[in-house]
């Protein structure tokens, strides 16, 4: 006699644990660095005033995230958190290594479209400075960091190591397009 429900249960567990373990190393590393810290604080206050004829919605939002600017504008400086991750195949369609000076730009500024391989941000260079020690490094954008807040950049180990010790995990950074 065949025990189909047992096989179905085993297969379901295999799928469940298989999907859980497929979170990218990039996301796992970012989440490890983010534990116990907040990268940006956003406060939203919604006030609704109702009259007999119409409703008015008033929304006030404040955020500490850096402003966005046109791609490639070298005069605008951005600030956020710098983290590092294990490099591999990025959203720009390139495979890099941990020794390359490359980075993943935060999703809001990366502006991924229907085809992220054709993203105009891919290949752009940015100069990142650690304000705590004044060290700088120039990196090429090759990936997107989905959990990163606007202004934040996830760096290759080599790039992060050029401006801070890897054990720091997360540092404050300033950066510009070059």
Automatic annotation (TrEMBL):
Keyword Iron-sulfur part of the UniProt annotation = no
**Organism domain of life:** Eukaryota
Instruction: Name the segments for region: Disordered.
Output: 57-77
Cross-referenced SUPFAM superfamilies, in alphabetical order?
A: Barwin-like endoglucanases
Return the InterPro entries for the record.
Expansin_CellWall, RlpA-like_DPBB, RlpA-like_sf
Leader sequence range is 1-22
Q: Which CDD domains match?
A: DPBB_RlpA_EXP_N-like
**Where does the record place the RlpA-like protein double-psi beta-barrel domain?**
125-174
Q: Which UniProt keywords apply?
A: Signal
Give the protein's recorded name. RlpA-like protein double-psi beta-barrel domain-containing protein
